[in-house]
Specification:
Belongs to the amidase family. It holds the Pfam family Amidase. InterPro entries: Amidase, Amidase_dom, AS_sf. With about 475 residues, the protein is α/β, with parallel strands linked by helices. It is built from 17 helices and 15 strands. Helix 3 packs antiparallel against helix 4 and helix 11 packs across helix 14. The N and C termini lie close together (about 10 Å).
């Protein structure tokens, strides 16, 4: 294996350790991943705005700190992609929209500030659907992101490029954001680990919080930012850096009373787990049912947990989800920006903005959210964890918003997201973990949901499952075909 390939297959924990002990320089790591990006981008289109000059300068700064005997930070020299919905000072942040084609923020998002301070090296902005209003990876501005496991398929979204970049080893981890599943969706479809910590663990600003920017300011009551990685430990390491309160985010909560990395090594023996295969109502692809049901058995057979099939018992709340999104959206500002440019934009987004919403629709949706939250905490009082499939289907072809048929039933284009958005309504911690593959070789994700604020339990269960059924050694065939 070439030196580049060896570096690009390392996890973030290993890269940081080798840079700190001078086995590798941050510059060597950066050059290796930039060369890999050049080879892969024509195939996967993960990065809408590569930033090689920014990366080289950051890597040189890390190497200089180490040479001077200074602490380079927890993520010393680790390459990272930043989702293009997350603001980056002096770096183009387009958000997949022609309305922001030339937008360069004047400040970093809080997570970007923290990652840079910890020595991470930003290698580029990763592709998204327009303003993130979709679970897939195509937009009107950049080429569609493709799934490294099958280039004809979507990588999922809205953290589309983040998923494709990590799955193909361009960076060991990436920043995703998640308003209805957008960390967990591409992680599941690309064979990765991704975690949406409890609402408020990771503060957001200016994203979802800055009224100056219509579209950027959306999703305030739903959005989370978090890691996507090939290992559980890498996500935990990133959470250690990006969590903790900030006065710019009124949702942010005090720092955790546990260590994120240590949590991944804890025993989960004796935990009570509920397993819901379909919420009691959702059509789910038979292969997804098979793969996830087999994976759930690991918790009982190998890890000493008790697993019961059970459903929280609500009717499908998805029809109200987009109403809550619309209620979080600056409709006046976005309609003003959109005027006369509708044909340049994504049709589903234009339809949401043009619809004449009523006050009753907004308040009805809020009542549905309250119902879901109350059913969920009552249900979780009996269980430590709730496990579901992450998605109702494996990856499907590019340029679709979602499949039209699941399990021989006609569905709406959002029904495949039936498992993820629930935890954005409730704010609970939720992770997706690779559960296995379909017969055609597409990854399938399993979702691990914790009680309110029980991120520690989710990380412990994730770490235990990874130990029992490791996956990080599996790579898409595309890489060997390209000699990577």
């Amino acid at each position: 294996m070439s030196a580049d390939n060896e570096i690009c297959r390392m996890d973030a924990v290993t890269v940081a350790a080798k840079v700190k002990d001078k086995t590798l320089s941050a510059t060597e790591v950066t050059e290796a991943v930039l060369r890999r990006m050049d080879k892969l981008e024509p195939h996967i289109h993960a990065f809408c705005t590569p930033t090689p000059d920014v990366a080289r300068a950051a890597a040189a700064a890390v190497d200089a700190k180490i040479a001077a005997g200074e602490d380079p930070g927890l993520l010393a020299g680790v390459p990272i992609g930043i989702k293009d919905l997350v603001a980056t000072k002096d770096i183009l942040t387009v958000m997949g929209s022609p309305l922001y084609r030339d937008f360069v923020p004047d400040e970093d998002d809080i997570v970007v500030e923290r990652l840079k301070a910890a020595g991470a090296v930003i290698i580029g902005k990763t592709n998204v659907p327009e303003f993130g209003y979709s679970g897939v990876g195509h937009n009107p501005v950049f080429p569609a992101t493709r799934n490294p496991w099958n280039l004809d398929m979507t990588s999922g979204g809205s953290s589309a490029g983040s998923g494709a970049s990590v799955a193909s080893g361009v960076a060991p981890f990436a920043i995703g954001s998640d308003g209805g599943g957008s960390i967990r969706i591409p992680s599941a479809l690309c064979g990765l680990y991704g975690i949406k910590a409890s609402m408020g663990r990771v503060p957001l600003y200016p994203g979802c919080r800055d009224e100056r920017y219509p579209g950027v300011s959306s999703w305030e009551s739903l959005e989370h930012v978090g890691p996507m990685s090939r290992t559980v430990a890498d996500s935990a390491l990133m959470l250690k850096v990006i969590t903790g309160p900030d006065p710019r985010d009124r949702y942010s909560i005090p720092s955790a009373d546990f260590d994120y990395v240590d949590a991944t090594k804890e025993s989960i023996k004796g935990l009570r787990i509920a397993y819901s295969e379909d919420w009691g109502y959702a059509p789910v692809d038979p292969e997804v049912r098979r793969v996830v049901s087999e994976a759930v058995r690991v918790f009982e057979a190998d890890l000493g947990c008790t697993v019961e099939r059970a459903n929280p018992g609500w009717d499908d709340p998805f029809p109200h989800f987009w109403t809550i999104v619309a209620g979080d959206t600056d409709l006046t500002g976005m309609r003003r920006m959109m005027k006369g440019r509708e044909k340049e934009m994504s049709p589903h987004l234009v339809a949401l903005l043009q619809r004449q919403w009523t006050a009753e629709e907004f308040t009805d949706a809020k009542m549905i959210r309250q119902m879901v939250c109350n059913r969920m905490w009552r249900f979780m009082a009996n269980y430590d964890l709730l496990i579901t499939p992450t998605l109702a289907v494996p990856a499907f072809p590019l340029y679709m918003q979602g499949p039209e048929i699941i399990e021989d039933k006609m569905v709406t284009t959002g029904d495949w997201l039936c498992f993820t958005f629930i935890c954005n309504l409730t704010g609970q911690p939720a992770a997706t973990i690779p559960a296995g593959f379909t017969k055609s070789g597409l990854p399938v994700g399993m979702q691990i949901i914790g009680r309110h604020l029980a991120d520690r339990t989710v990380l412990a269960a994730s770490g235990a499952f990874e130990q029992a059924r490791p996956w990080a050694h599996k790579w898409p065939k595309l890489l060997s075909e390209l000699g990577l």
